[in-house]
User: Fold this.
Amino acid sequence: MARLAQEFIARGADLELVGIRKEFPGFTAIENLDLHIPAGEFFALLGPSGCGKTTTLRLVAGLDEPTKGKILIGGKDVTATKPHQRPVNTVFQSYALFPHMSVLENVAFGLKQRKVEDPMTKASAALDLVELGHLAQRRPQQLSGGQQQRVALARALVNRPSLLLLDEPLGALDLKLRRQMQIELKAIQMEVGLTFLHVTHDQEEAMDMADTVAVMNKGRIEQMGSPEKLYDRPHTVFVSKFLGQSDLFVGEVVESNASSLSINVAGSKITVPKDRAEKHTGTIAVGVRPEKANFHESEPAPTSGVNLIGPGEIIDIRFTGVSNQYLIEIPGIGEITVFAQNVGKSPVTELGAKVWVSWKVEHSFGLADLPENSAAESLSEI
Amino acid sequence: MAFAAFGHGGGSASAAAPTKKSKVALFLLLPGLIYLGLFFMTPLISLIITSLEVPDGSGVMGSYAYGFAIENYAKVVTEFWPQISHSFGYALIATVGALFISYPLAYFIGVKARRFPLIQGLMLTLVIAPFFISFLLRTFAWKQIFSNESPAVHFLQQVGILGAHDYLVGTPFMVIFGLTYNFIPFMTLPLYSILERLDVRLLEASSDLYASPATTFRKVTLPLTAPGIISGTLLTFIPIAGDYVNASGDFLGGTKTAMIGNVVESRFLVLNDYPTASALSVLLMGVILLLVGFYAKRSGTEDLL
Assistant:
């Protein structure tokens, strides 16, 4: 088994998309996409349904043709080639296992097409890799969803593609099985060193598994980077809301020095380091992650390096196990969310309590755009 | 539970429920069973008895006595061998022809036109539309179209496809043409119903796994649509083998193209030679049963029958 895995290593190729545009009758699925995925990377395309991520994957697999642009795999232009001519394999969302073949025949299908020697032995070894060797003679319909998913994975992996495409393969599994498969998938990818392109709408899954995440929205990539970076420093409102939660404040820049700038939000001053802000002048949106904010039942003394707003009223408390989510209504600013770990008393305070909210300046981030409705709202308040 | 003790001795609770239902089902089946017994089994037995009869010696035409003349069967096989071979030969060619015409048609309607329900509906209607006109009339219309003095035949003679004194009506080609034409809907509809459910994602998966379009068709599309091909070919082959309209001299055939059906017709209705006609009918039925049984077994779909 380990030997089989060894054979995969360093087979991954890099993928390059240059100026890809895809139009369907009536709408444009992808506007103008440039993307480079280095060999051996686990890359996730994350976005809501209809954002163009599955279309991107189908273009790479060759199942659809781009209206414009080029696709290069391992430096070779494959734009004009048919799916069966590309060194790419896909794990489909529906698994798409052949119902008229046994599990083993399904896995051996690709090997047989390429006239690889001894396809059955290799297929058996691949089934062992996903721990389904004992079910080789079954029909796919006789397997559970998780098992089918693993067969689909084995069927793709056994061909040692330069690039493995995963189209929300875990979407149909229940939460527990999904977690387990995420760990297994990541382990396999690390072991075999293939380039993985994983399409998903599950932000946790993307952050958990991928080396690099690209957040897609309306046919464009909004932001790309390591999961930690995307979470810590989102560039746009969409990314800040799609990847985790964010409290956003909109205001005009009123103070600016060499290292930081401050905006005025309904009389409160919110400061953000300059190197964590996309825009430095005019009306901008500044955000903070709910778990980085704290609330206080009495007004704390103003401290430099800390943003403080309030007082407001706790209008909702949600218990989620490890933490409580508090919804706080602050007059003139609106509703903001604060997460507090359940380390002591739970809830920390009662509904209706008067509280102040604070967070460290270095946890603020400034966005390039404004939230759609609050922009007009805050302007009218000024 | 009492029912379970009554019947199959399966013992399990799940076996009890169907047993209970089957009592009602049996009752509901009764009219059908009586109908089959009266109107199917009786004539069949009568036919077998007639097929073994011998002339009663009175010399009166159509007058026969009970007998056990197995030699009637040997006689019809030797005497009507050309017609028997026509029946099965034409049926085979027409079935294969209908399959080759119907499969692409059904594939287009069921798979390619999926995104255009209007075109799909229109094309299906066109496939079924001929049923609204009598089968005899349509066959007769073809006779007119390809009659000896028709422009179509003149044209074919002029371009040299037909010789100056060759005609179409009365040729095996015309009979097979008519048979193929008449039975295409019986092939297209079962094919359509299975192709319409074909999961195209499996075809994409196949191409993703390095199979060319031709290989994908052979390894994925064809096996997945085999049940439709089998029911289509059975629905076509069986009635064609027994057909007597197309091959009849009144329609597209001639004396040299007679099939078993034509012999049965003339023996029964013209010559009053009941034993020969009956023996031929029984023989036709037996051979078809054997062929179909063998075919279904070979294609591994006994449960279809």
User: Anything to note?
Assistant: Residues 148 and 194 of chain B are 41 Å apart (CA to CA). Chain B has two domains: 2-51, 77-304.
